[in-house]
Design goal:
The longest helix has 15 residues. The protein has ten helices and ten strands. It has a single domain, classed as TIM Barrel (Alpha-Beta Barrel). It is about 30% helix and about 15% strand. It starts with a helix and ends in a 19-residue tail after the last strand. Strands 1, 2, 3, 4, 5, 6, 7, 8, 9 and 10 form a ten-stranded mixed β-sheet that branches. It is of the alpha/beta class. The protein is globular and about 50 Å long. Helix 4 packs across helix 5. Its cofactor is [4Fe-4S] cluster.
Amino acid sequence: MKNMNKYENCLLCPRKCGINRSTGQTGVCGVSSEIKVARAALHYWEEPCISGKRGSGAVFFSGCSLHCVFCQNREISDGKAGKVISKERLSDIFMELADKGANNINLVTPGQYIPDIVWAVNDAKSRGMKLPIIYNTSGYENVTELKLLEGIVDVYLPDFKYMDSTLSARYSRAKDYPSVAKQALSEMVRQQPDVVIDDATGLIQKGVIVRQLLLPGHVNDAKAVLKYLYDTYHDHVYISMMSQFTPIALKDYPEINRTVTRREYERLVDYALEIGITNAFIQEGDVAKDSFIPAFDCEGV
């Protein structure tokens, strides 16, 4: 039976709206208690140890508690796009992605549906699904809810967007983002303290990979994020340094209404090497393209 208590007075995310999503009300995340998915398909644009050759089984959930002004997935983050499904159908989707050869099940922006995701994963596993479960998140998560995922999630894939609360307030309307992200990451690492890569396939089985998206003009803040990650976790987490910032509808934010320059990104990579980071992914070439944004056309849903 669905755990309605989590939806009736919803405190699943750090916004703590407290609204009754089970009656159709929506808070910051933009969705009710009904599961809404915009795409479920093989995805090839993640880190190599996630996508591999066969692709990651990415399930893109509608809604988001953060709403960054530069969001590439804004088509679904407001909760309007996507198809309503049952938790039973979600379990079937996991099975279908496994049948298609997916390396893993990649839950993209899933925090607003944690109770039903736990049920669906357990159901799929009871039917023989053995793929690693990846929790792909903005990093803006409640520790209390993350604890519900212990034994469910094998790989955490959080963003760590900002160290400066002034930036997080301006671009994500979340002044508390840095402190929340630190606490959330600590819980993720507690659950998955070391990265485990399968030697035969090169695919990740367990662990934490932290993504840092470099914002135009904010190399120093990105450096501060890297320093915190390495000083705190050393080689226990992998770091993914991303340069793919794509300016979309940012006329009200002229200071970031451009792509990241090659020099800005090189400065960040050089700094990572300087402080001793070795377990890291970097992006090469021109990745700031709309073509890297998938079609949210309900494929596989």
